[in-house]
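Note to self: the last two entries modelled the partners one at a time, which told us nothing about the interface. This time every component goes in together.
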Amino acid sequence: MKTLKEMLSEARQVVPEEGPEQLQRRLKSGEPVVVIDVRDPDEYRDGHIEAATNISRGFLEFRVGTAVTNPSTPVVLYCQTGLRSVLAAKALKELGYATVINLQGGYQKWVQSGFPVVREVPMTADQIQRYSRHFLLPQVGDRGQRRLLRSKVLLIGAGGLGSPAALYLAAAGVGTLGLMDGDVVDITNLQRQVLHTTAEIGKPKVESGARTIKALNPDVNLIPLPMRLTVDNVMDIIKDYDLIVDGSDNFETRYLVNDACYLAGKTNVHGSIFQFEGMATVFAPNEGPCYRCLYPTPPPAGLVPS
Amino acid sequence: MQATEAVKLLLGIGEPLIGRLLTYDALGMRFREVKLRRDPKCPVCGTSPTITDLSIHVNGGGACEITTDSHRERVSDAVGALPKAGG
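The predicted structure of the combined assembly is written out below.
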């Protein structure tokens, strides 16, 4: 009969190990990789690597096929300290998965290395119903919804573009929305700026917007920013958000958003509109062009009506 | 459209509009897609950027001071549209 020690050392001979830094590099590179947390569900809920799917050790061989559709995709397994997962990895190798890697030191070492983890907050009964149609979409599902609830989006402008974006993002359950606008609601806004109502005329747009958003989805933590975006506040504000949605109505702000997002490495979902025409694109730093690749400088004053 | 793009980016699903400009003409009810490329001469994200901090924005209108008109014409031709100011 083999001792546990012998089993572990046999497994280590066939299973390569990688440390937290290497896994983080793999995840950042965008190369396909499947990360499986083989601990029990309660351990997973208490905190796990965001990209990881939970299949506890006992079910691994039965359920791995749903998580890893292509057996040549690299699979990284981890448990609490790296022991359960090395045995699990050996089993996957025997099942024919080409590249199976054990996370050396497990979840414990990942946490000690200061890499991010997520904690599963149980959804309320209302949330389960509210987002039930998202759960039916395989690309969203329970996991995607949790991710949306953890996400932070900054909306620059609560006008014609910011209004529908804010409503849809709030409805979808994006957990934190920063709403930035220094204006007050004017009656002339109301034929298109659907975040605001007649009763709110004269009130700051972010206050009006906050009321509408709260009424639509109380899950949303709306951060009102009743000010204009300036060179002095932009970096400090955008640093807290995962994504910026630019719905500004002037070139000065738009160039400022572009330059600041590029410098801060934030993706900017850009939109603009004039009369019956609109345009939309996404500026992702170093993945694609930025606004200045399109229009290096603002048009001369008077050429483009605002 | 911006909200859908935002959700896709947050979830890492689908094909985001990175490097593509979608234009919408409501009167003609037409969508057009224009491929956008990074400009190696871009003052912000090009190979030798001239804008490496936000100082150009101090005093507001400073962002207007660089002129590369030929570039703008080239891009405007490709896009077939002037930038839109309205939000």
